[in-house]
User: Fold this.
Amino acid sequence: MTEIVVRPATVADVGAVLALWTVGAENADRPSDSAADVERLLARDPEALVLATDGEDVVGSVIVGWDGWRCHLYRLAVHPSHRRRGIGRTLLEHAEQRFAAVGGKRADAMVLDGNDLGASIWTDAGYSRQPEWSRWVKPL
Ligand SMILES: CC(C)(COP(=O)(O)OP(=O)(O)OC[C@H]1O[C@@H](n2cnc3c(N)ncnc32)[C@H](O)[C@@H]1OP(=O)(O)O)[C@@H](O)C(=O)NCCC(=O)NCCS
Assistant:
């Protein structure tokens, strides 16, 4: 493995990001992703999608969602071939540095009930489940 580099995504990365999410992300019970969706995100906030790369390969991702009010994390994923090497933790550290820089007060993530693997890294990074809140949704 070469050195892992953490950097913002560009439009040139979109295909590789979608491929990573197909094999490496939590994909249950959520809207599907498309290239247009990712390109729209990058157009709105070029720093929002952060990648970990190993040479030419995109091996990790997180969406660092700052909407001017709250700090939301999405699409934390590490390729199965690169797991348990600290890449997920590095991505979260990068995300939290961004949130701190813009004045964010609290970061959050949606974790599917039963995703014990996902829960393990959020717990490790200092996040905890908020039992007093539920998410209310409406498909658009
Ligand atoms: C969850 C995920 C992002 C972790 O990425 P990673 O790069 O392997 O994680 P790290 O190596 O940075 O691990 C950081 C810590 O998380 C915990 N952790 C990560 N994977 C773990 C595992 N398989 N078992 C137990 N603990 C684990 C550990 O505390 C670990 O620290 P340690 O290695 O010093 O013990 C990766 O497994 C993944 O992409 N999973 C599928 C997608 C997913 O569920 N994403 C979260 C959506 S909410």
